[in-house]
């Protein structure tokens, strides 16, 4: 049987950080039947949208970089997960830079009057805050970005005070991630 496809956006620069641990926990719970592709916002060769407006009249994007492959993956995948540390109460700037390229879907919907991502998906949001967060702005941004990709969010796993207690020592958070993975499995 063909594997289900999961696209994960990782907004953290830290290879073995909190966000990376949350993603690893999700992947372990999803198991063998799932193919996960992770876009690391700090590593990917994906430039920001420059508002060239090519997508006002064409599908896709005029900038030829790794985003071309990600666009295809967004369109065909079954689930999307938005994972980020909280920086200045938001998702990270690098994640927003990468996802500025979703502007092509805004142009599709409101300018070209086309359905940008016909295949519906489910997914969720992971947020790791070192201190008190708070979660609201980052969560609202992450949920809005999921909607751009026709992804219905099944929920947010939010953890704070990670600078005091890392996620690996938080059984409640690990359980929340496992539950979200089970909900994605349907
Ligand atoms: C530039 C910067 C801004 C930050 N802003 C916040 C903040 O607004 N609220 C908060 O609780 N933690 C803040 N933090 C702490 C991070 O959220 C915390 O270290 C997080 O767990 C890192 O996740 P990671 O290991 O996945 O990269 C900030 C850290 C950095 C480097």
What's the structural blueprint in terms of helices and strands?
Elements: E1 4-10, H1 18-30, E2 34-40, H2 67-76, E3 79-85, H3 93-99, H4 103-110, E4 121-128, H5 136-148, E5 151-159, H6 171-185
Parallel strand pairs: 1-2, 1-3, 3-4, 4-5
Helix pairs in contact: 1-6
Give the key terms:
globular, alpha/beta, single chain, about 35% helix, about 190 residues, about 20% strand
Compact description:
The chain has 186 residues and is an alpha/beta fold. It has helices at residues 18-30, 67-76, 93-99, 103-110, 136-148, 171-185; strands at residues 4-10, 34-40, 79-85, 121-128, 151-159. The mean pLDDT is 97.
Radius of gyration: 16 Å
Biggest sheet, open or closed, and with what strands and sense?
5 strands, parallel
Total of DSSP H or I helical runs spanning 4+ residues: 6
Q: Spans with pLDDT under 50 lasting ≥5 residues?
A: none
Number of strands: 5
Order of helices and strands: EHEHEHHEHEH
């Amino acid at each position: 049987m063909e594997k289900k496809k999961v696209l994960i956006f990782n907004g953290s620069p830290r290879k073995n950080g909190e966000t990376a641990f949350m993603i690893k926990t999700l992947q372990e719970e999803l198991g063998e039947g799932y193919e996960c592709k992770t876009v690391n916002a700090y590593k990917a060769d994906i430039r920001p949208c420059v508002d060239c407006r090519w997508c006002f009249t064409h599908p896709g994007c005029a900038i030829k970089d790794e985003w071309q492959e990600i666009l295809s993956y967004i369109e065909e995948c079954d689930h999307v997960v938005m994972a980020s540390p909280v920086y200045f109460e938001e998702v990270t700037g690098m994640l927003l830079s990468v996802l500025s390229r979703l502007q092509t879907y805004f142009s599709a919907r409101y300018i070209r009057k086309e359905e940008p991502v016909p295949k519906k998906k489910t997914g969720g949001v992971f947020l790791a805050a070192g201190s008190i967060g708070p979660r609201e702005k980052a969560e609202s941004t992450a949920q809005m970005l999921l909607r751009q990709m026709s992804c219905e969010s099944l929920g947010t796993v939010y953890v704070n005070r990670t600078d005091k207690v890392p996620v690996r020592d938080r059984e409640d958070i690990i359980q929340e991630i496992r539950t979200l993975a089970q909900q994605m499995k349907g």
